[in-house]
Amino acid sequence: xxxxxxxxxxxxxxxxxxxxxxxxxxxxxxxxxxxxxxxxxxxxxxxxxxxxxxxxxxxxxxxxxxxxxxxxxxxxxxxxxxxxxxxxxxxxxxxxxxxxxxxxxxxxxxxxxxxxxxxxxxxxxxxxxxxxxxxxxxxxxxxxxxxxxxxxxxxxxxxxxxxxxxxxxxxxxxxxxxxxxxxxxxxxxxxxxxxxxxxxxxxxxxxxxxxxxxxxxxxxxxxxxxxxxxxxxxxxxxxxxxxxxxxxxxxxxxxxxxxxxxxxxxxxxxxxxxxxxxxxxxxxxxxxxxxxxxxxxxxxxxxxxxxxxxxxxxxxxxxxxxxxxxxxxxxxxxxxxxxxxxxxxxxxxxxxxxxxxxxxxxxxxxxxxxxxxxxxxxxxxxxxxxxxxxxxxxxxxxxxxxxxxxxxxxxxxxxxxxxxxxxxxxxxxxxxxxxxxxxxxxxxxxxxxxxxxxxxxxxxxxxxxxxxxxxxxxxxxxxxxxxxxxxxxxxxxxxxxxxxxxxxxxxxxxxxxxxxxxxxxxxxxxxxxxxxxxxxxxxxxxxxxxxxxxxxxxxxxxxxxxxxxxxx
Length: 568
Prior knowledge:
By secondary structure, this protein is of the alpha/beta class. The protein contains 22 helices and 23 strands. 49% of the residues are buried.
């Protein structure tokens, strides 16, 4: 029983906004730790304090801009891991602090491209620790191809696609990058590179030269003008205090600490009734669609599952107290069936109330499919969008069966009756039938985007064929309405829904209650989450392992990102 109460104590961290304003009213500079990118959506861990989300970070940063007692902001920044969309969201929030006339000082030990782009474009002063490293080296994308490996284990990928740039199965069917993928990826990297150069250029340095010379040690970074000072965090904190003309710097937690947990939090954790949801009053809903899209009725870690999402959107659409919905999307796509179900649910909701789609790091293929049904779409120039195309097929292991001495005898009634067999490639008639499935799905995708975006099909086709693009290019082609992050999406939704700035926010998905998980109600397992985190730590190889099930699922048609992409 003792351990249960310890678990309850750790678990009961409220989703509500923290009151960190400082009850004594003493002027102060506020310190926020951003040593890793905040998660885009709600944490799915069953036990332990929840991780800080992007919205947590935005709220606390913007509170510095708004609070009279906050005289400045001191950020400790760590590697952001190529999360360009999230970094742009954070930059948008920090910009509000600077607009309020309050100094922003930043300090780091290790920073990568995205972390430095955030600091260079947002901070009045940057310092780094003497033994630190600035990995400002330029953007890179790593794509790998595993056809030879698949053949060595007796497998053969038989995958088809609609759209010249749509090659989501290329890593299983090719040994080198095709020209179409290179063209699409080069254009994407050019956009990211331009944004990095622009951010670095705000330091009044030759951005291209300092990027080409990276990585940098601390003294080199200072000599080149990339940082203002080299010193330890306490020294940087003192500079921030002086800049704010205050007596203290106070660290602000992004999420509730153990000292802030009370009995109501414990009861909320037991029941799963967390968040800012208030059923009896007018409110805003924030819905997260994060991870690979799959069809089904129960949630799995790392996935965006159609059944729970559709049910939530229908409930929110029918609730008269929900005046507007923000749909936050960070997904490379997945199941075509699930994406279509989700599109319809969002389309139904948007016919009744404002639905603002906010795109995070990526809303490609199925992720964009769903976004297109919203009434308005916001994305940063650094977000990844598009990939309007379709892939389908199967991987067969006939050669492996032969090697193992397995002989399969197939009896059929109907020439395509065994088309799903994992031991044979498609016959000619099976391939014709699968191509027709893909063609039908592709044109449905085109129609859905045209309907949701109120565009001519010819205009959608000009942006289609599976092409992946930046938010900037997507805006030029009509796929995105305007530049903006999560904070701007929430403000727009409140305005269009006629809500006040302090109106409550209902979050979905909600974190599972401990009692629910103990009694088997939760479909999220800690070991599954740990496995996903471990595999993803392998970089591009890990991402491929996580995403490959999308191509091998029972459903033969997928709308997924055309390559396994890790941007650095």
